[in-house]
């Protein structure tokens, strides 16, 4: 994979949880699905791959911030034995990070479909939306 995409965008944070799903190849979950998993158990890690300026606007509690561009150098700090949910503003950068991590041995990594923006709409309207 071409690592140059990681130098263009993102900074990241994480939260902790575990996703159970019958479909082993499922890669994306909606904010409501993630919230249900968080409410059941708190053994997942949420990773925010947005840039620092974006995190200053809004963030998710307990999410670990690791900018997208830092993922290659911070991969070794991520647990392979926990479910990782990666998110960004709209879910595009985080999907790239998810694919990168999966190609590098992380089988339990998922994308938050629609990113923090969709989280704000569907789960927590107190999370400020931005463009």
Automatic annotation (TrEMBL):
Organism listed in the record: Marinifilum breve
Entry-linked Gene3D superfamilies: Rhodanese-like domain
Domain Rhodanese: 40-128
Name assigned to this protein: Rhodanese domain-containing protein
Pfam families assigned: Rhodanese (PF00581)
